[in-house]
Amino acid sequence: MPMTSPKTSPQTSPMTARAKVFCACAAALVLAMIAAIVPATAQFPAAPDDAAAAKGKKGAAAAPTINGNWAGELTQVGSPTPYKFELTINAKGAETKYPDLDCTGKLTRSGSSKTYTFFVEVITKGSADKGGRCPDGTMTLARQGDNLALGWFGTVQGTTVVAYGTLKKK
Fold first, then answer.
1. Which of 136, 152, 13 is nearest to 79 (CA)?
2. For residues 81 and 101, what is the distance between their CA atoms, to the nearest angstrom?
């Protein structure tokens, strides 16, 4: 009589399961951040320079400007220690600096709405692809009075990375 082996079903390895749970949690965090930011827009009055920018336009008020030098800390999901972050946005473009991680990046604006501005970030110094600590990613910004809410996500070796923070104008 021929011997047969019992059928085995493929099992998910613990690392794969953890990665799936992490990705699901990261996606839920991003959605929760967006859900929290939208109602907050009604709580913060426009900054004085925003009112000046809106003058001269008939009809709807202009969206708050995000141009300027901004600084604060970003918190990466799953990491206990936040890191310093600086952002410069002007007519020539936008740049990022991560002093604690020894990284810099260049932002390319990919779109905007009345409340949000979206960027793609390419790391120009300290890239994870070249042995550094910072991966390329995407960034969503929303002006809230004198603050700038920031949400960031990217991937490193197939793992989703999510960071968020609030920046203040320098």
1. 152
2. 12
Residue 155 and residue 19: Cα distance in Å, rounded? 12
90-147 pLDDT per residue, tens: 999 999 999 999 999 999 999 999 999 999 999 999 999 999 999 999 999 999 989 9
Residues facing residue 118 across a β-bridge? 111, 140
Tokens of 67: 């141009």
* Tens-place pLDDT, residues 54-88: 444 455 556 679 999 999 999 999 999 999 999 99
Beta strands in the chain (DSSP E): 68-76, 83-90, 93-98, 103-112, 116-125, 137-144, 147-156, 159-169
Give kind and range of the element (H or E) at residue 57.
none
**Residue 58 in 3-state DSSP?**
coil
Element (H, E) at 40: helix 14-40
- In order of their start, the domains of the chain are 15-45+65-169 (2.40.160)
Residue 76: Cβ-neighbour burial (10 angstroms; 0-12, 13-18, 19+): middle
pTM: 0.65
